[in-house]
Amino acid sequence: MVPRIEPLHPIQREALRRMSPAEKWSISLGLLEMATEARLAVLRQAHPDWTEDRFRSELAMERRRCSLEGEKVRR
Prior knowledge:
By secondary structure, this protein is mostly helical. It contains 3 helices and no strands. It has a domain at 44-75.
């Protein structure tokens, strides 16, 4: 299932238009970090016996799986 992407509000579009590529990149990295920490928190709650390496490995596998699924959708 492809997630529905909501259109940006005109104020959001204007704010993004005014940002430099570096600012947009910084925001993107911050969002990725926030999503990573949220997913790790869920994994830690569900699997308290796992090691930190296992959490990171599971997260990497999930990202690869999502990436591959995204490739299928784009084709």
